[in-house]
Amino acid sequence: MAHALDLPVAEMARRVRDPRDPLTARVLVDESLRRIEALDGRVKAFLHVAPDLARAQAGAVDAAVTAGRDPGPLAGVPLAVKDNLEVAGLPLTCASRMLAGYVAPRDATAVARAVAAGCCVVGKANLDEFAMGSSTENSAFGPTRNPHDLARVPGGSSGGSAAAVAARMVPLALGSDTGGSIRQPAALTGLVGFKPSYGRVSRSGLVAFASSLDQVGPLARSVEDAALLFRAMRGHDALDATTRRDVEAACPLPSLAGLRVGRVAELELGERPDAGTAAALARARAALAGAGAHEVELSIPLAGAAGLPIYYIVAPAEASSNLARFDGIRYGLRVPGEGLEGLYAATRGQGFGAEVQRRILVGTFVLSAGYADAYYKRAMAARQALAAALEQAFTQADVLLTATTPTPAFRLGEKASDPLAMYLCDALTVPANLAGVPAISLPAGVDAQGLPIGLQLWARAGADEALLAAAAAVERLLATPSPLPALAREVGA
Amino acid sequence: MSAPGPVPRLLVGMEVHLQLKTATKCFSAAPVRTAAEPNTLVDPVVLGLPGALPVLNREALRLAVRTGLALGCRIAPLTKWDRKNYFYPDLPKGYQISQYDLPLCSDGAVEILDDEGRPKRVRIRRAHLEEDTGKSFHDEKGTKSRIDFNRAGTALLEIVTEPDIASPGEAERYLEALREIVAYVGTSDGNMQEGNLRCEPNVNLAYPNGDRTPIVEVKNLNSVKNVGLAIRHEVERQHAAYVEQGQVAANTPRSTRGWDDVRGVTVHQRVKESADDYRYCPEPDLPPLAIPAAWVEAERARLPELAQARRARYQQRLGLSAYDAGVLTASRELSDWFEAALAGPTGPRDAKAVANWVSTEVLRHVNESGKPLGALALQPAGLGELVDLVQGGVLNLRTARELFREVVDSGASPAALARERGLAQVSDPAAIEDACRAALAEHPLAAAEFRKGQEKAIGRLVGSAMKALGGKGNPAQVQATLRRLLATP
Amino acid sequence: MSPGPTPPTPPTPAGTAPVAAPTIDAALVRRVAALARLEVDEARLPALTEQFRRILDLVGAVAAIEVPPAAGALLPPASLEQLRPDEPGPTLGRREVSRNAPAHDGAFLVVPRFRGDED
Lengths: 493, 489, 119
Known about the structure:
The structure holds 3 protein chains of 3 kinds.
Chain A: H1 9-17, H2 25-43, E1 46-49, H3 51-66, E2 78-82, H4 109-116, E3 120-125, H5 159-166, E4 172-177, H6 183-189, E5 192-195, E6 215-220, H7 223-233, E7 260-264, H8 275-290, E8 294-298, H9 307-322, H10 339-351, H11 354-367, H12 373-393, E9 399-403, H13 419-424, H14 430-435, E10 439-446, E11 452-458, H15 464-478, H16 486-489
Parallel strand pairs in A: 2-3, 2-4, 7-8, 7-9
Antiparallel strand pairs in A: 1-3, 4-6, 5-6, 5-10, 9-11, 10-11
Chain B: E1 9-19, H1 58-70, E2 74-75, E3 78-79, E4 82-85, E5 95-98, E6 105-113, E7 119-131, E8 135-138, E9 144-148, E10 155-161, H2 168-185, E11 197-206, E12 216-219, H3 224-245, E13 255-260, E14 265-268, E15 281-282, E16 289-290, H4 293-301, H5 307-316, H6 322-328, H7 332-342, H8 351-369, H9 380-391, H10 397-410, H11 414-421, H12 429-442, H13 444-451, H14 458-468, H15 475-487
Parallel strand pairs in B: 12-13
Antiparallel strand pairs in B: 1-10, 1-11, 2-6, 3-16, 4-5, 4-15, 6-7, 7-10, 8-9, 11-12, 13-14
Helix pairs in contact in B: 2-3, 5-6, 7-9, 8-9, 9-10, 12-14, 12-15, 14-15
Chain C: H1 26-35, H2 45-59, H3 94-99, E1 109-112
């Protein structure tokens, strides 16, 4: 008999809120901490485990239940938080030497809202340094491993969040997605990963990588679980001027019959596709056709080959500016050098890892005098054109269906020495960020080696609930729930 | 050595940074105050902590628009924010949130007088909203600098003119005019010593043959006087460099020089090699802002009449002297006070009389008491009442002055007090004649002297009669009665 | 080589010549690193320059993208009502400021002495 920690989140929280049910938030938190203790030495999903905070929050939830107050729809659900989101009083490292020892003075809005809904923060999850990467190997504190195969990467940059949920150490985790950093690790670890529309969830307290692309979102074992966490966090925030003010009502589960599912020529797998991924995609298309969905053939040239170049200009440009604040003056690492300029160069040269430095260099270059017109301004114009083209596509299709990643999880070190090979992992995910549209990765079974495959659904900007409803329907149709890694069975999951 | 050079034309464009009077910072809710312990007026946004995001202060925008309108600027219907990227220890985020290609205000003008006293317009190219930096303090000896971020994030309006300023005097008058305008519209204290108005003139010379000296931006100026001195010094220095070294814009880059107050010269400042590449990019944390024309018009309607317009009106419509008009418009508060006192219950009062009272008695009291005008118990209407009592012949000037000294601190009604105390002047001919006859009887010598032609002797007689009338006699009537009695032996 | 999507080589639309690629050499990388205040180890420079060149090859494809004019803004403009009211909020305490500061004297943050160009 599985532990209550393995129940659907709604069921888990319902039982915690029921004063007659012996299940408490404390029980869930203790079980989560026990599994972390048992497994994380091998997985390395967490940079910091916070038993005191988690137990204090669980105590507050249980006290509310006893007192007859409503502790919220996520009562007692243990939560892992990507370590680029602030949790008051806990370290905030962004997996960088630059911020070793930094303590966050406040909660990110997304964290505060999740906790207000009853979540208990058990720890801070590993990531690629400053969320730059697709494997979590760019962490200054060592890589996270894929619970389905410890020799492989969990994806990134939210790899720690994904590994923690995939190994069943926590039922829910927060990630951030700038070019696929929630969806890609979700796909590689067999989870649901949801990147909401730009502006749907506050970025206040999220350490900015590329402000116009970053979005906070959930990683979970099911669409329903992800939707619950998303609904707890979303909405306008006075601390983030880019949050949307419109409110979208929950959508009924759509009938798949008549659903227009877009198939974008430029977002198909390449000439030599990964067999498992191609098979999963074909299976899903056949199932959808069988359920009466209409496949709509689309061509969005800018979403294909142009996506990566646009992304790898815009994101580094914003990153070069966002990361200028790490200068050794007010907080974080300070490495002495010759005078002030020496201090800047030594602090930043030694505090940032290689990938972060590469992106700062590229970003600085594309914004610099003489080159901004040819690179940054062109990319921004192309990006707007891409957003317009995607908007147009959604007049013909209700959702788009693509793979999430070209391949399943690769081995640690396989792409670490080749930055460009790593960049190509993002080809199918970056257009959603560039256009600000919501996209969700769903588990679609495992390949011949037992590695999870993910498929991605996209919807028009602002249609987050419609996308979640469609994803839930597709999830039910595919009947390939989040695969349980052997590792998780050791702890009784 | 060198031949006397041709006479150049001076071109000065002024960049002014004006701190706007908001309660909180431009992009965060941290409070704005002048005096506070170092690094206490900071929050995550001000310090540029990871995860902190800017949110624009509506009042900062309103004050910027109000200032722009007072400068005759066009207000952009759509504006946006940009990042100016550079590294400096007092710049918390490594970039300053500013405005690059869509400034809030553009195409305005400030009217000043040229050196011959003729009106001229200094065109405002643009005025944009941005955030202030922190302050650095450098140890005199030793190896450390110290930084206070209290000022960081304060809302600034950067006001940039065309190079229309043609003399040091014009530069000084431009700054005075600007200071007066912002004081009138109440958007900034505009004080250079306190640093809430900071200016950087861009100075160069244009020669009749088309040569131009390289533009020099002068920093570290903390008074209007120093601005004039620095420009004077630059004129000489640039002219000498042109004549002696042939330095022109075509062969010498623009540079930055700091004003050395002690030596009275400008000093070359080290320019960082990368200083000029600010890598402007749109600020992704702030959406662009739409400013409806109706709102701009409503703000325009709320602008007060500015000092320049008031001075013209006081002279042309109220018949005041240029000097009085200047005194009365020295501050908007005083000018408003004067105008409130001028407004009588049935129509405007005598402007000269009210102006006299305000510029003498009221200002004297303000100066002597050290209390601001707004703290006076006497309200403008009270002064108006007093003026009415004098103009209507009810009080003589001496009684009125005594009464003023009393009501200025009590705020009591002069009319009621005069009634209550029976201070109304005596105009009853019989009572006045009695008093005058008594005076003549009491001072026969003075009467005789007057009759012999000593005009001054009547003073003693007037004094005596007034004393008999308790100081309340109508002075003109007393004079006339005495002269009539003296004329009839 | 992963069997992912084919590397981005979009066809150059007729009539748009690609922008001449800048010369990427160690000097350029050194200059950009100085602008970004990044200390670069000379031993690392050749490899970094090569990576930089390859990344710019990838992103240089934007030069060939034909962009329709006036594609619209990414974020809809805010209205005045959405701006923050001018009401003071909480500040960070001294302790919170100095807790994360690399060097301070209890009041000021301390850095190596530098010439004050602005003050």
